[in-house]
Amino acid sequence: MDLSLLVEGFGTALTPQNLLFAAIGVILGTAIGVLPGIGPAMAVALLLPMTFGLDATSAFIMFAGIYYGGMFGGSTTSILLNTPGESASVVTAIEGNPMAKRGRGAQALAAAAIGNFVGGMIGTLALVLLAPTVARFAVDLGAADYFAVMVLAFIAVTSVLGRSRLRGVASLLLGLTIGLVGLDEMTGQSRLTFGSLHLSDGIDIVIVAVGLFAVGESLWVAAHLRHRHDRPIPVGQPWLGRADLRRTWKPWLRGPLIGFPFGAIPAGGAEIPTFLSYVTEKRLSRRRDDWGKGAIEGVAGPESTASASAAGTLVTMLTLGLPTTAVAAVMLAAFRQYGIQPGPLLFQNEAGLVWALIASLFVGLVLLLVINLPLAPLWAKLLHIPRPYLYAGILFFASVGAYAVGGEVLDLLLLFVIGLLGFAMRRFGLPVLPAIIGVILGPAAEQNMRRALQISDGDLVGLVSSPFAVVVYVVVAVILAWPLLRRVVRSRTPDSPDREHADA
């Protein structure tokens, strides 16, 4: 890396005009990320036609602000309303929303904002220093490796969330079934389309995520409004005390170690690493009783991971022209709009643009923290809006977001059918996250499994044809065996006192 190029990039990004575009991007990204169903990918897509009059550098600086702003904005409604604005903030709701219900919504938002800042800074530094190495590693992974990573996600998500593994598996199967809808990419056969041409392209993940979370949560709240007195939830002070900082600084630093590598490989964007971060922090925590009731580590770790994953996503997009998330795909289209082809020669042919974009990531993260941390109490005041009005608004924006996906009335019908499914899952105690993971990763896991088997002529050994895949399956085996091992250890531990008492 030539440090002088990065310095020149800062010189470009810190001009008043580009600072303005970065601030606009951060504010728009946060505001749009807050709205259920309208995440950063849709924000960039909607703003793409508006940038025709801008030069490429200014446009991409604004897109970078939207990207990071959307990542943080999605966590806001996850924490305050249990309705993620985009899929990467799904895990944040698990501990963030209970924190808000306990009157610590502002602390959760502060932990998320600082986590985004720390994770984004470390991830962007890794982007600057390690992009070529990570890109080479991603190129070397084969279909069997990707399938192994996705199996790890499926096993982990059904083993940790919820009180019952059976319910986790049932939720995962629902998600995998929804992911089957559409045309088989390898054979062209229709699956679960019921003769509808509109379903041939499958059900968009935005509709599934918004239906299960926003609509399902709204229906669940509406069904219980009569049975409880709806009192405003206290918010608390918008800063972190010493006890909170002691619990969050390690998750903030661990998050990028998980998020950045996963962001750089095509394995589902930030969904897998945020969940793995949650699992890791839960395993390492000394306060097991707090988990599920509002453990601040469960907010700090996944948010830092998501931000670092966003930086990792840009590695393969810039160096290989390979988009690993929806936002990266839209940004790739934006590059082509300006006649620029991302790839190995991008850093040579468009050095000024690339280093200005990377420098703007640092600038955008600072702006994100400066703008959003003081606004934590303002966002937390959403809790004081009467529930009927608040969730009516959520249903409205969810419907707008779902309709904007394809402009079809059928999308709205699918939204509310999936919303009823989300309501039923809450009614019978099925966790929602496994279903979302199944929808997102199911099709990709199927394709990678079939490609690996084709390469090996149907021999199952083809699924463990690399050292990386073997290591991942060992981790899967440990996760599956851990409850049994823990039970054996616990059964042996009380024996020694009993024997001592008997001997006495």
Structure report:
Residues 19-437 form the DUF112 domain. This is Putative tricarboxylic transport membrane protein. InterPro entries: DUF112_TM (IPR002823). Keywords: Membrane, Transmembrane, Transmembrane helix. The chain has 504 residues and is an all-alpha fold. It has one domain. It has 21 helices and two strands. Strands 1-2 form a two-stranded antiparallel ribbon. A hairpin with a 6-residue loop joins strand 1 (182-183) and strand 2 (190-191).
Summary keywords:
504 residues, mainly alpha, two-stranded antiparallel sheet, 1% strand, disordered C terminus
Order of helices and strands: HHHHHHHHEEHHHHHHHHHHHHH
- The stretches of 5 or more residues where confidence is low (pLDDT under 50) are 496-504
Tally of DSSP helical segments: 21
Computed Rg: 23 Å
Shape: globular
Query: What's the multimeric state?
Result: single chain
Number of strands: 2
The largest sheet is: 2 strands, antiparallel
Number of domains: 1
User: How far is the first residue's CA from the last residue's CA?
Assistant: 71 Å
**Largest sheet strand order:** 1-2
Give the amount of beta strand, in percent. Answer: under 5%
Helix content: over 70%
Provide the fold topology.
Blueprint: H1 3-13, H2 16-34, H3 40-47, H4 56-81, H5 92-101, H6 105-140, H7 143-160, H8 165-180, E1 182-183, E2 190-191, H9 205-224, H10 242-263, H11 271-284, H12 297-319, H13 326-337, H14 346-349, H15 351-372, H16 376-380, H17 387-406, H18 409-427, H19 433-455, H20 467-492, H21 495-503
Antiparallel strand pairs: 1-2
Helix pairs in contact: 1-15, 2-4, 2-15, 3-4, 3-13, 4-5, 4-6, 4-12, 4-13, 4-15, 5-6, 5-12, 6-10, 6-12, 6-15, 7-8, 7-11, 7-19, 7-20, 8-19, 9-17, 9-18, 10-11, 10-12, 11-12, 17-18
Organism: Amycolatopsis arida
Protein name: Putative tricarboxylic transport membrane protein
InterPro entries: DUF112_TM
